[in-house]
Amino acid sequence: MTLKRPNFLRRWLGEHARVCVAAFGRQWRDPISTLLTAMVIGLTLALPAGLNLLVENLRQAAGGLNQTRTITVFLRDGASEAEGRELAAMLGRRDAFAAAIYTSRDQALKDFRARTDLGPVLDALGSNPLPASITLTPHPLQHASDLGRLAQELRARKDVEQVLLDDAWSQRLSAALAVATRLAQLLAAALALAAVLALGNTVRLDIEARRDEIIVMKLIGAPPGFIRRPFLYAGFWYGVSGGVVATVALFVAMHAMDEPVQQLVALYEGAFSLRGPDARTLAGVLVAGALLGLVGAWLGVARHLGRIEQR
Amino acid sequence: MTEHILEFHDVGCRYAGGTDVLNGLDFRLARGEMLFLTGPSGAGKSTVLRLAAMQLRATRGKVLMNGRDIGGIRAGKVPAHRRELGMIFQDFQLLYDRSVFDNIALPLVIRGLSHLDIGRRVRAALDAVGLLNREKASPRTLSGGEQQRVGIARAIVARPQLILADEPTGNLDPRMALDVMRLFERFNEAGVSFLIATHAIDLIERLGHRAIHLEGGRQSAARPEAASRLVEP
To answer: What is the dihedral of CA A296, A298, A302, A303, to 10 degrees?
Structure first.
């Protein structure tokens, strides 16, 4: 009687499905060990993912704080109120600015008196020393370098005495965010390496625990791929479990950070709410976990499986 | 198809430490023959089987299976070579976390047979070794003789041309040992070739098959009394 083999693809897929389910079942039946391994991978994934999320949130917050930032254009004394208002209207129509508000010299004086106790000092001067000004509010997404260029353009005008644009803090923040982004990338690479090594070791222990089975498999002619497969799927499931742990850790961390961050933002009069991981981030964490699991398992298998032979 | 299923031509085998475990071994196993290897511990009986199964490679001479020199087989092709054999061990080498059925099915799963074929052939093998009613049992719950019969069923289930058995009765009492040998004879009558390494000279004598006596890695002319009465090639 000849051995009847089913369709190759069906057989191949069926075998993979069987081993995949069996590997999941094996881990399910050993929850403590699985959870410990998943936590190692989960924290490895959660740390860089969390840092990345933090950077994204800071970037968003910086955008929000941008709204509270203004460019103040002080006009020369010779410029009339009509010219000032015309200039403000012209600037207000530009895409870069959300608002342009003209403040006359008299209005500036009134505001100054209202805000300070220095009215008698101004009276002693005999004339109004305050210039007319235009307060420009940039659009939130307006890049800092564009604003610098616009300020430069305004400074070149004859009717403009001085332009104030305090963008040093914005540049510092951008630089700090760039450093944090790079740090997150380096951390991710280092922790990924650590996770791969840890998983390789876990798979080595799995291989040792199933030494007898592997010996029997080899003796009865199992191909290397057949012997390797359960360990690769084990790595895959460890990685996916790690991804789930990382996802939970991210949500917990975001929830814990939300209130203090809201208090901090309120101090800067910004409108900002902490953004949790979106679907793309979560999918990325799960896929990264699965890939790390597979790579770690592959390394473990490649290193240790060949050494197991009948004594 | 060649007349001999397995041939050893002036085969030597030296371990990494420099110890010669086989020296100038020369014999042929005819298709459908049952051949015993006897000799004291360390004589090289298991080494012969390990060479045939490609767990070791000869350092001298040639080992042919079906006329093909297996010494030239690449490492990646060794599993395919082993799938042409059935192997039986003294310590049974069963997987104790799986049922009797799953143990016997293993060679067929590796070959990618359908569930239907696996079920049919495993039950036929179980029937042949008299364990049809124990397919769901764990090997742990079986006696030594029954466990060896599971090992035999696993070896025959994929219908190999040649079965290598290393001290298959070493862990069994005399009655069970005879049962196992009778089982081998039944499969041998059906055309399966056997190469069996054993200490059980009285059993060999009782069964009356050809035997090769090894001593210090060489074929020995001086054999123990019982073995000397066996038929020579």
So the answer is: 10
What is the β-pairing status of strands B210-215 and B34-38?
Answer: parallel
**pTM for this entry:** 0.72
Closest-CA residue to B167 (of B36, B22, B33, B34) = B36
For chain B, the domains span: 1-84+160-167+194-233
Same domain assignment for residues A59 and A183 = yes
CA distance A194 to A192: 5
Give yes or no: residues A179 and A256 share one domain.
yes
Q: What is the pLDDT along chain A (311 residues), one digit of tens a residue?
A: 455 555 778 778 888 898 999 999 989 998 998 999 899 899 888 988 888 888 888 777 766 555 556 788 999 988 888 999 999 999 889 888 888 999 998 888 888 888 888 777 877 777 888 899 999 888 766 676 777 788 888 889 888 999 888 666 767 777 888 888 888 889 889 988 988 998 888 889 989 988 989 999 999 999 999 999 999 999 999 999 999 999 999 999 888 888 887 887 777 666 667 788 888 888 999 999 999 999 999 998 988 888 877 66
Using the beta-carbon criterion (under 8 Å), do B112 and A15 form an inter-chain contact?
A: yes
Do A94 and A77 fall within a single domain?
Answer: yes
A13 belongs to a structural domain: no
Record: fold of B1-84+160-167+194-233: Rossmann fold (3.40.50)
Identity of the residue numbered B207: L
**Distance between A272 CA and the closest CA of chain B, angstroms:** 57
In this complex, the residue of B110, B114, B159 whose CB is nearest that of residue A220 is B110
Residue at A60 is within a domain: yes
Which residues of chain B make contact with A11, given a CB cutoff of 8 A? Answer: 112, 114
**If you measure CA to CA, which chain A residue comes closest to B96?**
A213
User: Is B94 in Cβ contact with A222 (below 8 Å)?
Assistant: no
| CA distance, residue B99 to nearest chain A CA (Å) | 13
Domain containing A120 — which CATH number? 3.30.70.3040
Do residues B58 and B12 lie in contact, with contact meaning Cβ atoms separated by under 8 Å?
yes
Strands (E), chain A: 71-75, 97-103, 133-138, 160-164
Asked if B118 is an interface residue toward chain A (Cβ–Cβ < 8 A), one would say no
Hey, what are A296's tokens? 């770690």
Which residues constitute the domain of residue A202?
19-64+172-307
- State how many domains chain A has: 2
The distance of B94 to chain A (nearest Cα, Å) reads 8
Buried/exposed B3-33: b ≥16 CB within 10 Å, e otherwise: ebbbbbbebbbeeeeeebbbbebebbbbbeb
Fill in the DSSP letter of residue B71.
G
Is there a single domain that holds both residue A195 and residue A275? yes
Question: Does residue A88 lie within any of the structural domains?
Answer: yes
Do A109 and A151 belong to one domain?
yes
Helix axes A224-267, A168-209, angle to 10 degrees: 150
Does the interface ipTM go beyond 0.90?
Answer: no
Q: Are strands B60-65 and B4-14 parallel, antiparallel or unpaired?
A: antiparallel
> Does residue A242 sit in the same domain as residue A292?
yes
